[in-house]
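Example (one chain per record):
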Amino acid sequence: MSDELTELSFTVSGRVGRPPADVYEAVADPEQLSRYFTTGGARGRLEAGADVTWDFADFPGRFPVTVVEADPPRRLVIRGEAREGIDAETTTTFEFEPVDDGARTLVTITESAWRATAGGAKSAFGNCEGWTGMLAALKAWVEHGINLREGFYA
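Predicted structure:
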């Protein structure tokens, strides 16, 4: 078995003070997602087989997103198109695990498919930062109705 690194992936997680169904809905619903994450708007609900787009005012350009799996309120799997540093499409998995008897949710986001190159590492680290920011923004939105991204990047 080889120890050679061929693909980069990362996982970030955080706890949100609401039940999994509420947290899942805040990610799947384009209206809510547009209020705290996709600064240029989200189009289309994250449902199995759906093709949706996310737009970011701070990172111009519409990103097509394909929903591979939707298992409310436990799991979402999406794919994004290939970009620099990626051998293929990235796969991003959101897992929503109940904690504290379902009063809170542990959200775990894992993304993979980045090439083990300098460009792949730069892109993977950038996305890791983005998903970490998304988790913080999700928590502020779901728990307090606050949009942390407003005015943060532009």
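Caption: The chain is about 30% helix and 40% strand.
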